[in-house]
Design goal:
This protein has helices spanning about 50-60, 125-130, 145-155, and strands spanning about 5-15, 20-25, 30, 35, 65-70, 90-95, 100-110, 120-125. Strands 1, 2, 3, 4, 5, 6, 7 and 8 form an eight-stranded mixed beta sheet that branches. A hairpin with a 6-residue loop joins β2 (about 20-25) and β3. It is α+β, with helices and mostly antiparallel strands and about 160 residues long.
């Protein structure tokens, strides 16, 4: 099987006080966790880990600083860095030219960045709001996003 080229992306389901943060994606016109592309040096070499990308993207999109909650495999060598294990990884179709290889993390809110005025394109959803959100409402919440958002709330409830 020959695959299309990948762009690597990272997202975070941010939980706080029994709610999860979702943003309205301007192009896709649906609720998604904040996230985006991993940075490269211009020559196609990545200059941040998926965890770093998720934290940076969440900050850029919302103004919130977060902490990733994930297990880490112990490094085989003391000179190696242990990476956060994503809650999920997936490949999703973007267009005829490329796909996205996505890393999703569960995160908790640490604070708001000074001087940042968050946009109005995000919303904190409770479990009840996610479960009651109408299937045909606009902007929509995909079943995959709803399931991960609910899991993030339940998983992080006792860690916050």
């Amino acid at each position: 099987m020959v695959r299309k080229p990948f762009h690597f992306t990272a997202s975070g389901y941010v939980a706080h006080e029994g709610r999860v943060l979702l943003v309205q994606h301007s192009e896709l016109r649906k609720w998604l966790p904040p996230g985006g592309h991993m940075l490269t040096d211009g020559a196609g070499r990545f200059i941040e880990s998926p965890e770093e990308a998720a934290k940076r993207e969440i900050g850029e999109e919302t103004g919130f600083d977060v902490e990733v909650h994930a297990s880490r495999y112990p490094p085989l060598d003391p000179t190696h860095e242990a990476l956060a294990v994503p809650e999920s990884m997936h490949i999703h179709r973007i267009d005829e030219e490329h796909d996205h290889f996505g890393f999703d993390y569960f995160c908790v809110l640490k604070g708001v960045r000074p001087g940042v005025k968050p946009e109005e394109k995000y919303r904190w959803f409770s479990e009840e709001e996610l479960e009651a959100y109408p299937p045909k409402a606009l902007p929509p919440i995909g079943d995959d996003v709803r399931a991960m958002a609910l899991k993030a709330i339940k998983t992080l409830h006792n860690r916050i």
